[in-house]
């Protein structure tokens, strides 16, 4: 039987998880712990349940940070197959890492009175109220935060200034409720990336995961039409005509561009369905290639709009965190978002994921 006990002396010496890989006693013990951890239900988030390898990675990271692995696990998430950590956890790690001679200090500057308390209350289709920011880009001018802390062995603090306009990902309702707190979290994370990246090396938060990979924004070629189909659309069963009797190419191109523009602007399913019907009515004029392309675009837009509006409605109808059943509603929303990913696309999905991760600490407590 393997010895899974770790002596106090060993526990004090094994701090770096990379070094721990070469300590067989430590490795055996943490592997056994990960096996138990993977069996958790209420104490372990869904993406770690039954996953011993990821539980082991979280446990090793928690050991390096000298934190409770179950508490760390509750602050993790999965985006595009990458295990990430909430900004709240990253901030706590930096604060207690031992590399600072003092705690972080903050100074909010600029006309925050143009931001604080300026939110609008809206209602979704079910009559549920929610808050949204009620300021514009002009109001953000000059608004920001300064954060500083002193590294051990140094006399002067390292300073970082961050403007509200630099907070690119902020589509959570928490930005309407407490923008100063959200800016403080973001500023500490940016400070740590700049001045002590070794402390959180390999640890990413949602917006960083979103920025790590370049996205191919080239429109996909959705039309799959054979030469035979193109020929049939213009020749088979039709009498030969002169060039003067045919529809001018410029008119067809203009019609196709107009349909593309309408598709991109469609914001509800009724609009998408109406555009699809108009495309069907112009099938003979468009020809097989353009008709197939536009029909596919309209169908894709319908599913995207339907999925996006459905997820937005669920977010806006969430009960307050302290209301009965709030945690269950939030968990159901996470599953709904995962199911809608194939229709939303990476960019929208990542944006919604970031929103839920910002809200999660309010609904799911450790």
From TrEMBL:
Pfam families: RecT. It comes from the Bacteria. GO terms for biological process: DNA metabolic process. InterPro entries: RecT_fam (IPR018330). One of its GO terms (molecular function) is DNA binding. This is Enterohemolysin. It comes from Brenneria roseae subsp. americana. The lineage of its organism: Bacteria, Pseudomonadati, Pseudomonadota, Gammaproteobacteria, Enterobacterales.
């Amino acid at each position: 039987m393997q010895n899974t006990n770790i002596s106090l002396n060993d526990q004090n010496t094994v701090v770096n998880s990379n070094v721990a890989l070469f300590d067989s006693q430590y490795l055996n013990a943490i592997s056994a712990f990960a096996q138990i951890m993977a069996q958790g239900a209420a104490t372990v988030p869904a993406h770690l349940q039954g996953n011993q390898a990821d539980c082991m990675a979280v446990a090793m990271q928690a050991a390096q940070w000298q934190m409770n692995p179950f508490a760390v696990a509750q602050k993790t998430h999965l985006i595009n197959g990458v295990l990430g950590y909430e900004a709240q956890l990253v901030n706590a790690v930096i604060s207690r890492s031992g590399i600072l001679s003092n705690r972080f200090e903050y100074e909010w500057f600029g006309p925050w009175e143009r931001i604080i308390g300026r939110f609008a209350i809206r209602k979704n289709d079910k009559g549920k109220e929610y808050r949204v920011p009620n300021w514009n880009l002009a109001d953000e001018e000059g608004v920001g935060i300064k954060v500083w802390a002193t590294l051990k062995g140094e006399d002067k603090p390292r300073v970082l200034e961050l403007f509200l306009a630099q907070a690119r990902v902020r589509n959570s309702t928490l930005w309407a409720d407490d923008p100063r707190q959200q800016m403080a979290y973001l500023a500490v994370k940016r400070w740590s990336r700049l001045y002590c990246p070794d402390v959180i090396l390999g640890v990413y938060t949602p917006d960083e995961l979103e920025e790590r990979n370049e996205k191919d924004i080239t429109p996909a070629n959705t039309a799959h039409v054979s030469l035979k189909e193109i020929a049939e659309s213009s020749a088979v069963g039709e009498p030969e005509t002169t060039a003067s009797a045919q529809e001018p190419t410029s008119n067809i191109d203009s019609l196709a561009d107009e349909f593309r523009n309408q598709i991109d602007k469609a914001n509800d399913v009724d609009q998408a369905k109406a555009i699809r019907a108009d495309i069907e009515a112009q099938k003979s004029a468009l020809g097989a290639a353009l008709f197939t392309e536009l029909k596919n675009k309209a169908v894709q837009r319908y599913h995207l709009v339907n999925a996006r509006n459905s997820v937005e409605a669920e977010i806006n109808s969430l009960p307050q965190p302290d209301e009965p059943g709030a945690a269950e509603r939030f968990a159901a929303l996470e599953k709904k978002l995962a199911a809608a990913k194939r229709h939303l696309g990476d960019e929208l999905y990542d944006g919604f994921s970031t929103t839920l991760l910002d809200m999660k600490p309010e609904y799911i407590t450790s």
